[in-house]
C-alpha cells in the first residue's frame, strides 16, 4: 500500500470502519512511513478538538415560527396558475362538467365553420379582389358617361348635321 | 388539503408542544409517509427528532445562530412542501441532510457570507450559549473560549463542500454513502474530500493539537 492508497483509507481507518485485512495493510504502511503516521496522528487530534464544539439550543420561538410559515404556505407558495379557479371551486359539477362543456363548444364551432355557406366568401370580404377592382372601374366609366350626357344626347343631331358634312367635304 | 383546513379553521398544529416521545412513533420513513397522507402530528414528531441536529449542522456551517435558525426553518419548510412527492427510496436522514446541505451551500454561494462575517457570533456570546462546566475557573474558561474560537475559525475557513463533509461526518455521524448523496459525489470522492479537509484542519490547528498532547 502506498501513501495515496493510505490517504483514501485514512478516515475510514480512524473511524474503525475498515475490514481487518485493510486495517492491517494501513498499519503496515504507517509503520514504515513517518509522514503518513504523523498525518493520521494529527487528524486524530483534530477530531478530538472538534469534539469540544458544544451544540447550541434553538430559540424557544422556533416551532411557533415554523408553524406560522407552514400554515401560511398554501396562500404564499401556490402560484395563481397552480390553484383551482374560484369558479371551479364554486361550481357544483366540478371538472368533468367543465371538460364536457368545453368539448361540446369546440365541436359546435367546428361544425358551424364546416357547414355554414359562404363562410369562405365572408372571410375574404375585406380583401380587394379583381372582381371588386373591375366594379370600381365600371363605376368610373358610368360617372364619365353621366358627365358627357349632354354631348351624347346631341350625338344623332351632330352626326347627321348637314352643315358639318359640307364643311368636311370643303376641306377635302 | 390538511394545511388549508388548518389555516381556515384557525386550528393549531401543535408544533409548539413537541412530542418528545417521538422515538416510539415509528421510523422516519413511516412518519414521513403519514405526513404525506395529511397527518400533522407526524411532522411534529419528525421535527422533535431532527430540529436540534439540523439547527446545529447549519449553525456550524454558517456560525451565526440567527441565520442558522432561519435556514433550518427553510429546510423543514422544504421537507413539508415535498411531502407529496416523498418516496422512501433512501434513508430519511440522507434526504434531510441533502436538503440542509444545499440550503447551507446556497446561502454561502449567495455572497451573504461576506456580510455575515462581521456578524459571526463572537466568542463571548458564543460561549454564553454553550454549556459551561461549573468546575472551570476563569483561566480555564478563557483558554477554552480561545481554543473553541480557533477551531471554529479553522472550520469556517474550509471551502463549503469540505466544511459540510466534515460536519456531516463528525457531528451528524452520516456514513460515507450518505455524505456522498448529500454532496452529490461518490463514496471514494467523499473519503478523499474528508482527508483533504481534516488535513487542512490539522495544519491550521497543529499548534493547538500539539499543546494538548
Short overview:
The complex is a heterodimer of chains A (172) and B (213). Chain A is an all-alpha fold and 172 residues long. Chain A is built from eleven helices and no strands.
What does this structure look like?
The complex is a heterodimer of chains A (about 170) and B (about 210). Chain A has about 170 residues and is mainly alpha-helical. Chain A contains 11 helices and no strands. The longest helix of chain A has 22 residues. Chain B is built from 12 helices and no strands. Chain B starts with a helix and ends with a helix. The N terminus of chain B is likely disordered. At the A-B interface, helix 1, helix 3 and helix 4 of A face helix 1, helix 3, helix 4, helix 8 and helix 9 of B.
List the helices and strands and how they pair.
The complex is a heterodimer of chains A (172) and B (213).
Chain A: H1 3-15, H2 20-32, H3 34-51, H4 62-77, H5 86-90, H6 94-115, H7 119-123, H8 130-147, H9 149-153, H10 155-159, H11 162-171
Helix pairs in contact in A: 1-2, 2-3
Chain B: H1 2-9, H2 28-36, H3 40-62, H4 65-81, H5 92-109, H6 112-117, H7 123-129, H8 138-156, H9 160-170, H10 176-183, H11 187-204, H12 206-212
Helix pairs in contact in B: 2-3, 3-4, 3-5, 4-5, 5-9, 5-10, 9-11, 10-11
Feature tags:
A: mainly alpha, 76% helix, elongated, B: 213 residues, mainly alpha
Number of helices of chain A: 11
Beta-strand share of residues of chain A: under 5%
Number of strands of chain B: 0
* Structural class by helix and strand composition of chain B: mainly alpha
Largest sheet data of chain B: none
Largest sheet of chain A: none
> What share of the residues of chain B lie within helices?
over 70%
Low-confidence stretches of chain B: 1-11, 123-131
pLDDT averaged residue by residue of chain B: 81
* Overall pLDDT score of chain A: 71
Strand elements of chain A, count: 0
User: What value does the Rg of chain A take, in angstroms?
Assistant: 51 Å
Quickly give the structural class of chain A: mainly alpha
Shape of chain B: globular
Uncertain segments of chain A: 75-94, 120-139
Distance between the termini of chain A: 134 Å
Tell me the helix content of chain A.
Answer: over 70%
Amino acid at each position: 500500500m502506498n501513501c495515496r492508497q493510505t490517504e483514501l483509507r485514512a478516515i475510514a481507518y480512524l473511524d474503525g470502519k475498515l475490514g481487518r485485512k485493510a486495517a492491517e495493510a494501513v498499519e503496515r504502511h504507517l509503520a514504515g512511513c513517518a509522514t503518513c503516521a504523523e498525518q493520521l496522528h494529527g487528524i486524530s487530534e483534530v477530531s478530538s478538538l472538534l469534539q469540544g464544539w458544544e451544540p447550541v439550543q434553538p430559540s424557544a420561538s422556533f416551532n411557533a415560527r415554523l408553524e406560522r410559515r407552514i400554515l401560511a404556505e398554501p396562500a404564499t407558495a401556490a402560484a395563481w396558475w397552480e390553484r383551482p379557479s374560484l369558479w371551479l371551486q364554486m361550481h357544483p359539477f366540478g371538472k368533468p362538467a367543465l371538460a364536457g362543456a368545453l368539448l361540446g363548444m369546440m365541436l359546435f364551432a367546428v361544425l358551424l365553420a364546416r357547414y355554414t355557406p359562404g363562410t369562405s366568401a365572408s372571410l375574404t370580404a375585406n380583401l380587394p379582389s379583381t372582381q371588386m377592382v373591375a366594379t370600381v372601374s365600371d363605376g368610373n366609366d358610368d360617372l364619365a358617361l353621366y358627365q358627357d350626357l349632354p354631348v351624347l344626347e346631341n350625338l344623332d343631331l351632330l352626326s347627321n348635321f348637314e352643315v358639318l358634312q359640307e364643311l368636311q367635304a370643303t376641306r377635302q | 388539503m390538511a394545511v388549508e383546513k388548518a389555516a381556515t379553521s384557525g386550528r393549531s398544529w401543535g408544533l409548539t408542544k413537541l412530542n418528545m416521545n417521538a422515538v416510539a412513533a415509528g421510523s422516519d420513513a413511516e412518519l414521513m409517509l403519514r405526513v404525506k397522507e395529511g397527518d400533522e402530528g407526524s411532522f411534529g414528531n419528525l421535527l422533535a427528532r431532527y430540529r436540534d441536529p439540523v439547527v446545529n449542522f447549519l449553525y456550524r456551517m454558517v456560525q451565526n445562530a440567527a441565520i442558522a435558525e432561519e435556514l433550518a426553518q427553510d429546510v423543514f419548510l422544504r421537507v413539508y412542501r415535498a411531502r407529496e412527492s416523498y418516496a422512501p427510496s433512501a434513508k430519511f436522514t440522507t434526504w434531510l441532510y441533502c436538503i440542509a446541505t444545499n440550503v447551507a451551500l446556497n446561502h454561502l454561494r449567495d455572497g451573504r457570507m461576506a456580510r455575515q462575517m462581521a456578524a459571526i457570533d463572537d466568542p463571548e456570546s458564543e460561549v454564553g450559549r454553550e454549556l459551561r462546566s461549573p468546575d472551570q475557573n476563569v483561566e480555564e474558561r478563557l483558554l477554552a473560549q480561545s481554543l473553541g474560537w480557533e477551531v471554529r475559525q479553522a472550520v469556517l475557513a474550509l471551502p463549503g463542500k469540505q466544511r459540510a463533509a466534515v460536519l456531516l461526518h463528525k457531528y451528524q455521524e452520516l456514513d460515507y454513502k450518505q455524505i456522498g448523496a448529500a454532496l452529490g459525489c461518490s463514496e471514494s470522492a467523499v473519503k478523499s474530500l474528508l482527508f483533504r479537509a481534516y488535513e487542512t484542519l490539522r495544519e491550521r490547528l497543529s499548534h493547538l493539537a500539539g499543546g494538548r498532547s
